[in-house]
């Protein structure tokens, strides 16, 4: 049996190749993501471990990470360095003055910083044996007008020694002359680095010559980091500052990097999941058809004495061989994919070394578990079916396995699962709780997908009769035969179409969700934004106070209302603690925004010591007007703010953040001193036109490339662009699903051509031309692809409407169906069908007629 299995595998290796490609793709994405993330993690672990000081003393940790920033920089007294230096076991200390809330521009007002999301960091120059850079040309900065620039940034932005740059920092902008270039001795994480001398960094970056962002400490020989940390904490007070050893700093930095790595890893695993799911249909179909074509062969084996277990084991062995080959090739492809990602990161400024690629023990294990597991599971049902072939099948031309079996079991199971899925989706639509609605949505999506796959063959005959109903009229007997070929085996047609259905259901659902979000935000911007213009950064980051001053001084500018952000932790009456971002506004908010209130008004919410919040959030957590809410601000500052108003906006939680918390700028200036504005709402002065004001504002802000002027239309475009990022990922997933689905259609048609060799020979013998034969196969392919598209779109539109119902609970109440996308998907599916049929149709038309008729 083993010898027969190996010969059978080698005899059908061409037919199994397309199935192997699906395994290769899924394994490649799994192994590539693991290799890439392991390589980045190892590289940065080395960087953090080699550059961290033995002990650092920093501002007290406020546990408010991950929220929109206030622009304020937490500092410690620089005099701590002298106090720490006196602690037993300290060999050396130095002051750190480093900030990321800056922009650096050249003489043409073009930004010198990275465009990839990495920060621009300005810091004091204090070289040690642990510095990530070394001075390679020029000299160290000496005085307030000099600076160093890292070599990578200097090369990308054509900056040379002697050039003048402008640093836009929170205390104000200032010019520096580049007097030296510093080159990275470790991995460059993609940031731009500007170095100043220490007094300049303290006064110009922090606005206080006696402030520091931290104190770096070097331990004396023989003193451990943990022991030194305890001594320093005892000397300064254990609760006044944050103390970290080198290992703790490295872990903290690695945890921050982990979020970035998780995004890449989960995106790639998403691709792997789609490839795996669609590949399952392909493999099931391939093995089902191969077993159907080998009915007589399997019958002969049974007649010669092979029992059912041996036949089933033979088919599963073939599947294991296929999985082994696919996994091996997929692992190799994953290494290539990881190499490509490393090179891509280099193009974005993160200079990883491909020679240090990490292939951990878990990567090949995961690759073979995925490849072998998927193939084995997908081949199990066809293997069981093969074991049921009787010895008598060797004596007759048996029908295609499963073609004539009734679909009653599928109907019952599909109906039960579908009813459960529909009930979950209905529950999602009528639920008033976001968490419950989201859970029911997930359950409904999974169950309805499973039900559609199970019941797909039942839908083949009614749907394809409609889709191919015009074929006989348009193409005559050729059209009629192509339609009947698609109807011949509903199981095969359903499984082939299911591969395409999965991807199209995903894209249809997400397209409805994104179109609904876009329409909701458009409606809300039209209704709420009352200002002529909004001045803000692309990524909502704060900007220096001088920007606000210059906007106020701009000719034609009338009212200017500031907005600031502050990360806060709020303790609610029901006992829950919520970490979120609060907004702060000037008192004349009503003149630039149309805020809808359920109770109270802007004056009550923006009063000193008061706050407002979203009415839905307040009901959920039993908050009432007049309640005093404990609020923790950055730096551990606590306050009790009185609830003055409830908003009833149509955007998520009132102001776009959890809870919709907002208060007056007086409150934020008291508890977050040194903060920066994140947006300015500007109205034109009486008698000044909007176009005139816009031109004046753009002229004023020409020196600040990080800040843009937007009107309502610009603001809508910004929101659309952010939503589009999610759609691009969905379209990429769709592209992968379509590639594998095309492989499935090609495989099905190719095996179908082999299966119908004798039939094709007879058709050719009675006068069917080659062009007619190719057309028949193309039409069969088109109707199968469009069938998959129709199922996918129907399923996806239902999912999308349910997603919109969940979004409506967050205020996004507009429903939009992107009909253009729907039409494009149907047309594209027909094109996919034509493309997939090219090779099988060409092969069928080249058959020798006599050889085909004589085919067994």
TrEMBL record:
Query: Quick check: keyword Transmembrane helix in the entry?
Result: yes
Q: Which residues form the ABC3 transporter permease C-terminal domain?
A: 271-391, 733-849
TM segment ranges:
266-292, 319-345, 365-383, 411-432, 438-460, 494-513, 725-754, 779-799, 819-839
Please state every residue range assigned to the domain named MacB-like periplasmic core. Answer: 17-234, 493-699
Q: Where is this region: Disordered?
A: 108-127
Q: Which UniProt keywords apply?
A: Cell membrane, Membrane, Transmembrane, Transmembrane helix
Asked if the keyword Transmembrane belongs to this entry, the reply reads yes
Q: From start to end residue, where is composition biased (Polar residues)?
A: 108-126
State the compartments where it is located: Cell membrane
How does it sit in the bilayer? Multi-pass membrane protein
Family that this chain belongs to:
Belongs to the ABC-4 integral membrane protein family.
Which protein are we looking at?
A: ABC transporter permease
- Upper lineage: Bacteria, Bacillati, Actinomycetota, Actinomycetes, Kitasatosporales
């Amino acid at each position: 049996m083993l010898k027969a299995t190996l010969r059978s595998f080698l005899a059908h290796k061409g037919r199994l190749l397309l199935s192997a490609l699906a395994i290769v793709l899924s394994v490649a994405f799994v192994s590539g993501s693991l290799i890439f993330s392991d390589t980045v993690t190892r590289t940065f672990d080395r960087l953090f471990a080699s550059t961290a000081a033995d002990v650092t003393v920093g501002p007290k940790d406020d546990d408010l990470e991950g929220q929109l920033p206030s622009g304020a920089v937490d500092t410690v007294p620089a005099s701590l360095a002298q106090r720490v230096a006196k602690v037993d076991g300290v060999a050396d200390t130095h002051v750190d003055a480093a900030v990321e809330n800056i922009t650096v521009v050249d003489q043409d007002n073009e930004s010198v910083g990275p465009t990839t999301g990495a920060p621009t960091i300005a810091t004091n120059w204090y070289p040690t044996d642990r510095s990530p850079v070394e001075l390679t040309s020029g000299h160290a900065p000496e005085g307030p007008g000099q600076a160093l620039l890292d070599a990578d940034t200097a090369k990308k932005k054509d900056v040379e020694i002697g050039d003048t740059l402008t640093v836009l920092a929170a205390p104000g902008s200032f010019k520096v002359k580049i007097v030296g270039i510093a080159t990275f001795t470790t991995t460059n994480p993609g940031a731009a680095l500007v170095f100043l001398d220490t007094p300049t960094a303290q006064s110009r970056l922090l606005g206080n010559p006696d402030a520091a962002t931290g104190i770096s400490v070097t331990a004396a020989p023989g003193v451990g980091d943990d022991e030194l940390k305890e001594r320093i904490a005892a000397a300064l007070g254990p609760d006044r500052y944050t103390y970290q050893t080198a290992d703790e700093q490295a872990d903290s930095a690695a945890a921050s990097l982990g979020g970035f790595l998780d995004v890449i890893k989960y995106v790639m695993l998403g691709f792997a999941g789609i490839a795996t799911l669609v590949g399952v249909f392909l493999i099931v179909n391939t093995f089902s058809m191969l077993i159907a074509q080998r009915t007589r062969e399997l019958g002969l084996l049974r007649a010669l004495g092979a029992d059912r277990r041996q036949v089933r084991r033979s088919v599963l062995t073939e599947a294991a061989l296929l999985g082994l080959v696919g996994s091996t090739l997929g692992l190799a492809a994953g290494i290539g994919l990881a190499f490509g990602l490393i090179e891509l990161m280099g193009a974005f400024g993160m200079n990883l070394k491909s020679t240090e690629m990490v292939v951990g023990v878990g990567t090949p294990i995961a690759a073979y578990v995925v490849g072998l597991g998927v193939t084995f599971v997908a081949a199990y049902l066809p293997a069981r079916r093969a074991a049921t072939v009787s010895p008598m099948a060797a004596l007759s031309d048996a029908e295609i396995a499963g073609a004539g079996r009734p679909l009653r079991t599928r109907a019952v199971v599909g109906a039960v699962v579908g009813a459960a899925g529909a009930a979950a989706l209905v529950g999602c639509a009528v639920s008033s709780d976001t968490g419950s609605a989201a859970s029911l949505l997930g359950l409904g999506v999974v169950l309805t997908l499973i039900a559609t796959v199970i019941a797909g063959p039942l839908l083949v005959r009614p749907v394809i009769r409609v889709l191919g109903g015009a074929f006989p009229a348009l193409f005559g007997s050729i059209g009629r035969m192509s339609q009947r070929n698609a109807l011949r085996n509903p199981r095969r047609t359903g499984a082939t179409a299911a591969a395409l259905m999965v991807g199209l259901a995903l894209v249809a659902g997400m397209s409805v969700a994104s179109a609904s979000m876009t329409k909701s935000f458009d409606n809300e911007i039209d209704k709420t934004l009352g200002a002529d213009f909004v001045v803000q950064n692309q990524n909502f980051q704060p900007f220096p106070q001088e920007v606000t001053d210059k906007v106020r001084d701009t000719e034609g500018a009338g009212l200017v209302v500031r907005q600031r952000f502050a990360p806060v932790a709020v303790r609610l009456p029901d006992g829950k603690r919520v970490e979120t971002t609060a907004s702060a506004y000037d008192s004349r908010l009503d003149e630039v925004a149309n805020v809808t209130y359920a109770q109270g008004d802007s004056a009550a919410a923006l009063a000193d010591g008061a706050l407002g919040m979203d009415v839905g959030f307040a009901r959920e957590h039993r908050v009432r007007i007049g309640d005093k809410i404990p609020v923790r601000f950055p730096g551990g500052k606590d306050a009790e703010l009185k609830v003055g108003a409830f908003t009833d906006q149509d955007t998520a939680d009132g102001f776009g953040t959890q809870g919709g918390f907002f208060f007056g700028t007086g409150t934020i200036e008291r508890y977050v001193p040194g903060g920066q504005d994140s947006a300015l709402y500007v109205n034109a002065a009486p008698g000044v036109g909007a176009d005139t004001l816009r031109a004046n504002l753009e002229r004023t802000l020409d020196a600040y490339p990080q800040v843009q002027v937007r009107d309502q239309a610009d603001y809508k475009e910004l929101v659309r662009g952010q939503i589009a990022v999610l759609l691009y990922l969905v379209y990429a997933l769709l592209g992968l699903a379509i590639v594998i689905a095309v492989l499935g259609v090609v495989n099905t048609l190719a095996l179908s051509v082999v299966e119908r060799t004798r039939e094709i020979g007879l058709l050719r013998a009675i006068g069917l031309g080659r062009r007619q034969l190719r057309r028949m196969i193309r039409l069969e392919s088109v109707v199968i692809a469009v069938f998959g598209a129709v199922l996918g779109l129907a399923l996806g539109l239902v999912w999308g409407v349910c997603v919109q119902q969940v979004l409506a609970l967050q205020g996004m109440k507009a429903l939009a169906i992107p009909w253009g996308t729907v039409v494009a998907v149907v047309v594209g599916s027909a094109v996919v069908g034509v493309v997939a049929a090219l090779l099988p149709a060409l092969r069928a038309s080249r058959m020798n007629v006599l050889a085909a008729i004589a085919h067994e």
